[in-house]
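Last lecture ended with a question: if I hand you only a sequence, what can you say about the shape of the protein? Today we answer it with a concrete record. The protein is Trigger factor. Below, first the input exactly as provided, then the predicted structure, then a couple of comments.
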Amino acid sequence: MQVTQTLSEGLKREFQVVLPAKDLEERLSTELANLKDKVRINGFRPGKVPVQHLRRVYGRSVMADVLQNIVNETNRKIVEENELKLALEPQVEFPEDKETIEAAMEARGELSYKVALEVLPKFEVADFAGLHVTRETAEVPESEIDEALERMAKQNRSFAPKGDDAAAADGDRVVIDFEGFIDGVAFEGGTGTDISVDIGSGTFIPGFEQQLVGAKAGEERTIEATFPENYGAAHLAGKAASFKVKVKEVQAPGESTIDDELATKFGMENLDALKAAIRGSIEGEYAAVGRRKLKRQLLDALDQQYAFDLPPSLLTQEFENIWRQVQSDLQQSGKSFADEGTTEEESRAEYEKIAARRVRLGLVLAEIGEQAKVQISDDELTQALVERARQFPGQEKMVWDFYRKNPQALAELRAPLFEEKVVDHILATATVTDKTVSKEELLDESDGESKPAAEASAEEPKKAKPKSRAKKAAPEAGSETPASE
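The predicted structure:
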């Protein structure tokens, strides 16, 4: 076997591999000889099948395995001997000439093929001590705890029938049956029976609840309302609908009291314990926002520190992933690039920059993590898998089995854990200044879209989002009722 490098240009490498017919024949004969003691063929005693007969029966399938093994071995050899770090799997290109392939499959002629590689760029990891970031924190105001208690008390208050002749008012609960129509045609999922509507709660699409004010038990009325433009069900978004409603009962709310009894409804010992739990929950939310903003600063700083060539295939792959999501978002919202105040060309240019940033930061964080020997333990991965499974009530086992049987999916689950550890490693050395700000300042993330940790390395740069950024659709129309927002 002869391996010759034919291209070294930027991050691209190409090698020409020549497999002499003699080598192919030797490998094929060895495999057939090994097969001799394993196969059972009528008319022959075990282990006595002539090799030539095996060749006639199994020759092509065995040679296919031989060639695959040779290709794999050669690729490993090329990578190891040239000390390469690959960006993607090697691309193998065989000759198009059928006669050449047939000759190789029968070991009558040599086989020459090309291996194309893209390697990762080499760069020096900068000193983290030069990084300066600010961690924002905020105190939880007592007013926010009081507001939370009021909401919880209101949500858990009891309702009692007002009477047959009582009219529904704002704050009342109305139990209804309804059927929805668009252009006079009933639409899928547009019906509901014994549905409770709390007037003024904002649970249903705009205009629906308000039109129940004044309704009485036994009354039938028609409600006209329009689904929001960003409604989760694309076939309903922005559509005007008519709902035939039958009012079955009107209920008035009872008193909403904030006391120890309310706390017990939430599994707490007393009101003080409930307040402490609320404070802890809000503090957790504040900490998560502060972490996101801190991390975004860090990624911005890293993005400014590094400039190197990016593997073209990785860049293309990342852009295509982003672009598919953009087009999907636009399709769901029923909008075009013009509706977003831009053009497709301008949007592509902006998202190409975002894709480059994501790839660059991903490579930087990966190199830092490798040098720091950052590892994700089996326990940490298992815990992450458990948390993911909990997001799908009733389907936990299916989700668990899916990830356990799909290494690529499991790797995607591992990636954000690895990234968070790398970020912590950098922050341990970087200069981090703590700053106490108001709640409003902390929660103001207008300089960048907040993202979950799983997307952190793909965060977009500040002010780099094009006007055509497709809005995320609202939750799918699969909540309590088809009319709920």
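Comments.
1. The CA atoms of residues 96 and 259 lie 80 Å apart.
2. The longest strand covers residues 185-198.
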